[in-house]
Amino acid sequence: MRQKNQNKIIATNNDVQAYLNSIEDIQKRQDSIKLDQILRQITKEDPIMWGKTIIGYGSYHYVYDSGREGDMCRAGFSARKNALTVYCISGFAQQEELLHQLGKHKLGKSCLYIKKLSDIDMDILTQIIQNDWDYMNQKYPL
Predict the structure, then answer these.
(1) Which residue segments constitute the domains of the chain, with CATH numbers given?
(2) Disulfide check for 112: which of 81, 86, 95, 141 has CB 3.0–4.6 Å away?
(3) Are 39 and 29 in contact (CB under 8 A)?
(4) Confidence at residue 142, expressed as pLDDT on a 0 to 100 scale
(5) How far apart are the C-alpha atoms of 86 and 74, rounded to whole Å?
(6) What is the DSSP string of 33-86?
């Protein structure tokens, strides 16, 4: 049973390839495979599953001012029903110029929502992910 201050999303031993193969929408599956390749290239990490649906690369330990702490992937994505969700932990304040060039997308606090990769500039997406990876490695050194 999960303790009150424990993360809901934790690293699992679930198989990444099995998750990718289970994505029913063919375009979303192909886009997810492409995102996996990009993230592997940038991070030089083998992915693991975080929870049931997040493919994560690397990990870091955080501590909030409230004292809550936990572990999470340094970079990752998920093939959600409505969109591919790319997690950018650093947020987007430093990436506004790139976001204007990206193409069709939506933003959450640290989530970049993309319907399909053909809607965006892949070089710009790669740069956004690289910038976030660099930020995470600076803020949370290995």
Answers:
(1) 16-136 (3.90.1150.200)
(2) 86
(3) no
(4) 79
(5) 11
(6) HHHHHHHHHHH----EEETTTEEEES-EEEE-TTS-EEEE-SEEEEE-SS-EEE
